[in-house]
From TrEMBL:
The keyword Oxidoreductase applies. Gene3D superfamilies: NAD(P)-binding Rossmann-like Domain. Belongs to the short-chain dehydrogenases/reductases (SDR) family. This is SDR family oxidoreductase. CDD domains: SDR_c. InterPro entries: NAD(P)-bd_dom_sf, Sc_DH/Rdtase_CS, SDR_fam. It holds the Pfam family adh_short_C2. Keywords: Oxidoreductase.
Length: 252
């Protein structure tokens, strides 16, 4: 589905990003795997190469604009262009010591950090990717939002606000850049088994699966399939949309 295309993934060292980097490569893309640590990105590159794919590892902190610009430049220099991008790096409330904290009790620093990584980080990636794609005549981008971008979740106000922001940013960016032949969509995962959800699975896994129509957590590969399709030419009339892949969580 992606033969001859180049694809960039942030958060590629773990979870959904890693599975999507592998799926991009399986579908024929050259992959630029970017993550906070070079080692994590390199592990994904090694897995891609072990299956005969081509990939490069890039270290990036999406809160650092110069690093994001350099990431896009590195992907372009490795593969001669940028056809697809998956802006997926993100953090959960418990990673800023705000897991389960009610909105009014949340420290400002935790609020700002969640928005900085999860929303502004996506905006930074988008603007540098669009700058490249408009020069080469088009491209396709997917941002990772969440069911938390569609409904409220308890004790997660900063995360929910950031993910609703990603849904809005995706629509606005899609409208702004459609005439430049750049498609921009979001994917909204439900609860997926990754390092990010290990703690919530331990604490309230039963409640989450009971609340999910399909009665289980998803696996990262199930998100990757939607992202591959959205980035492929088969989705040529799809832009500004949110793809919910949540086992029916938001349908209940
Ligand atoms: P994950 O396994 O923790 O992977 C996230 C990756 O992003 C990690 O490799 C992490 O690096 C990296 N990262 C964190 N901060 C970064 C930064 N400032 N710059 C660059 N990379 C950074 O989590 P995941 O579950 O795959 O989550 C991926 C995305 O899906 C996130 O946006 C998350 O909000 C979203 N999501 C997840 C679920 C779920 O149930 N898992 C549901 C809905 C949405 P470190 O490990 O070094 O911190």
């Amino acid at each position: 589905m992606l033969d001859g295309k180049s694809a960039l993934v942030t958060g590629a060292g773990s979870g959904i990003g890693r599975a999507t980097a592998l799926a991009f490569a399986r579908e024929g893309a050259w992959v630029a795997a970017a993550d906070l640590t070079l080692e994590a990105a390199q592990r994904t590159v090694a897995a891609i190469e072990a299956k005969g794919g081509q990939a490069v590892a890039i270290a990036v902190d999406v809160t650092d604009d110069a690093a994001v610009q350099a990431m896009v430049a590195a992907a372009v220099s490795a593969f001669g262009g940028l056809d697809c991008a998956f802006n997926n790096a993100g953090i959960a409330p418990h990673q800023v010591n705000a897991g389960g904290v009610l909105m009014a009790d949340m420290p400002e620093a935790a609020w700002l950090r969640l928005l900085e990584v999860n929303l502004t980080g996506v905006w930074r990636c988008l603007r540098h990717e669009v700058a490249q794609m408009r020069q080469q005549g088009g491209g396709a981008i997917v941002n990772t939002a969440s069911v938390a971008g569609l409904v409220g979740l308890p004790g997660a106000a900063g995360y929910v606000a950031g993910k609703h922001g990603v849904v809005g940013l995706t629509k606005a960016a899609a409208v702004d850049h459609a005439k430049e032949n750049i498609r921009i969509n979001a994917v909204c995962p439900g609860y997926i088994e990754t390092p990010m959800t290990e703690e919530s699975k331990r604490r309230r896994g039963d409640a989450i699966t009971a609340r999910t129509a399909l009665g289980r957590f998803g696996v990262p590969e199930e998100i990757a399939e939607a992202v591959v399709w959205l980035c492929s030419d088969r989705a040529s009339f799809v832009t500004g949309s949110n793809w919910t892949v949540d086992g029916g969580y938001s349908a209940l």
